[in-house]
Amino acid sequence: MFAFLRRALVVSVVNPVRVAQPAALALSRPLSFLAQMAEAVEQKIADGKSRHEDRKRQKQDRYNGAVKKRKWEDPPADPDAVRNFDPASRVKKRKCIILMGYSGVNYFGMQRNPGTKTIEEELLVAMLKNEWISDEAFKQPQQIQFQRAARTDKGVSAATQVVSIKLPENLDIAGLNKDLPEQIRVFAVKRVTKGFNSKSNCDARTYTYTLPTVAFAAHDEEVSVETYRAPEDRIQKVQETLKLFEGTKNFHNFTSRKEFIDPSVKRFIMSFECEAPFVPEGTTVEFATIKIKGQSFMLHQIRKMVGLTLAVVRGLTPPETIMKAFEETRYGVPTAPGLGLVLSRIHYEKYNVRYGADGCHETLDFEQEQDQIQSFFREHIASTIVKTELAERSMVEWLETLPLHSYEPREEGEEWRGKRKADDEGDDDDE
């Protein structure tokens, strides 16, 4: 239309119509207006095209096909470096898991906590030194989607812990382990799916609790820690008591600051059993390991389950107390020491069924790493638990407080602490 107006104006100039002077002046005004309007519209179109070209150039500068959907990073200040800067040369990161183990006796838990000695702090420092992560990722691990499978707390160890994280390829695990304390060991790094989360994709967790079998003796029985050997009937009583916890139960009495009506206190315990007693090499004290598998656990839950089990086995309260503790009434449940608690295994059955055989991802059953895991467990976890218990006798001292405990309903807000100050830091907190 605007081109037509321009042609009309040209024709009117070349072949002017012979009209009276007043009429010609009258026609010149609308023709001048049309010309101005056409020029203004054309300028607007030209400006629009210019803005479009500017946006297109900016987009080409900001994105590159080799690094699509990732914003352009500010190039170096050096002009030579700017000319040679290639976005495609940046390190490409993929979602992985770190399979690791650690003895937590001398640490304040797994989770990073400024000013305290934690497992995560040691791991992040070593990864930064070995250039697995950047300075920014070290300061803010969420940038690389850092997530642990379970948040073990003060003094709690892990034979198998899983961390999901974005990492570069071709990593030197042996080099990383050289910069880690001997109490912490990385067993493997495995590729996983882009949206994998070590915590939310976990189907179940298995914990173990190792303790001297003298804890199974009757409370009024005179026994020696060094010479006591649990008879078969005592082990059987332990097994029967542990079975009372299996299934879906309300564990509001086995954690802190949770109400009976809170949906999160209902947890599913798949199995709870005691393995055969054993005498560690170089000692005369008999130990036993209790193993528990469940979907997830709350703060203090496992230690309280072990604590109430020992109270029943030692004859301080009847088995019915356990069943009453699943009801609405508030009970003060004793909390066993944290020393013997170990995160033994993380389970990813559903993930393995869906992705384990797709040819791109590895199964997360950790069978290939079992020799490493068991060797590390024996050398740095089991031996440390035994040595520390024999030296500090934390379980024996705690057993002395059990008769002081009231196994009757308590008032809201009342908390029994016995002779020893309760450990408020918690333990197997997976939430």
TrEMBL record:
UniProt key word tRNA processing: yes
Region (Disordered): 45-85, 408-431
Any Gene Ontology biological process: tRNA pseudouridine synthesis
Keywords linked to the UniProt accession: Isomerase, mRNA processing, Nucleus, tRNA processing
Gene3D superfamilies with a match to the protein in the record: Pseudouridine synthase I, catalytic domain, C-terminal subdomain, Pseudouridine synthase I, catalytic domain, N-terminal subdomain
Matches recorded under SUPFAM superfamilies: Pseudouridine synthase
Top-level taxon: Eukaryota
Catalyzed reactions per annotation: a uridine in mRNA = a pseudouridine in mRNA; a uridine in tRNA = a pseudouridine in tRNA; uridine(38/39/40) in tRNA = pseudouridine(38/39/40) in tRNA
Major location category of this protein: nucleus
Biased composition (Basic and acidic residues): 45-62, 408-423
Active-site feature positions: D153
Location(s) in or outside the cell: Nucleus
EC number(s) from the headed UniProt entry: 5.4.99.12
InterPro entries: PsdUridine_synth_cat_dom_sf, PsdUridine_synth_TruA, PsdUridine_synth_TruA_a/b_dom, PsdUridine_synth_TruA_C, PUS1/PUS2-like, TruA/RsuA/RluB/E/F_N
Family according to the record: Belongs to the tRNA pseudouridine synthase TruA family.
Protein name as catalogued: Pseudouridylate synthase 1 homolog
